Amino acid sequence: MLLYVTLGTNDIDQARRFYDIVLPLLGYRRQRYSEEEIGYAADGDARCRLWIVTPFNRRRASSGNGSMVALHAARRADVDAFHAAALAAGGVDEGEPGLRPFHANFYAAYVRDPDGNKLSAVCETPE
């Protein structure tokens, strides 16, 4: 359904440092980088699916209230590692790793990146 997602940043270098640390823990790697944008893709994907960008209109980037990007995690340990790495890299806790009431195997953690964008890592595999 989704071709790609973009999140705004006000500091492309700070965003690169954050995402370069947390996304590889979920199997996503930086594929593109410029002064305006950074593109990440899953291993083996020919297309970047997550873009961190400076706004095209050159206005200040802001996070959306009620907006969130959920990233797939293969294992619960990957969710735990993502959450810990995000906090160590300057992210803010929005929900520690754990089971959620959405269904019996919905294991997730929630963080905000340095620009305030909300992210989650989710594993739906039983363990």
Automatic annotation (TrEMBL):
InterPro entries: Glyas_Bleomycin-R_OHBP_Dase, Glyas_Fos-R_dOase_dom, VOC_core. It comes from the Bacteria. Residues 1-124 form the VOC domain. The keyword Calcium does not apply. Gene3D superfamilies: 2,3-Dihydroxybiphenyl 1,2-Dioxygenase, domain 1. It holds the Pfam family Glyoxalase. Keywords: Lyase. GO terms for molecular function: lyase activity. PANTHER family: GLYOXALASE FAMILY PROTEIN (AFU_ORTHOLOGUE AFUA_5G14830). This is Predicted lactoylglutathione lyase. It comes from Rhizobium tibeticum.
